[in-house]
Fold this sequence. Notes:
By secondary structure, the protein is largely without helices or strands. The protein is built from 2 helices and 2 strands. The protein has helices at 2-10, 21-24, and strands at residues 74-77, 85-88. Strands 1-2 form a two-stranded antiparallel sheet.
Amino acid sequence: MDVNFGKFQQNGNAGYILKPSVMREEISYFDHKSHKEVPGACPKALKLTIISGQQLPKPEGGSKTGEVIDPYVVLQTMGVPEDCHEAKTRTVSDNGFNPVWN
């Protein structure tokens, strides 16, 4: 759902995004399953920092008893296989209302 919402946000809520030129060329060397660099595409680095959260739901696998939760955040990046990654923050003990990770 979040990925679809992001697509609409990217182009004035139209939901249509033009493919990159390397994917639109009639003779293209782009293969979404390949782990090789794409000619004409510059690699980018993305650095995310989770600072805090508010009123987070109880995490999966967490303790089911008591009112205080131990939250964590899971980040997923999507794209070609080389771009896909998942990371998890550390668990903040006993602070589900306003946890801080920095």
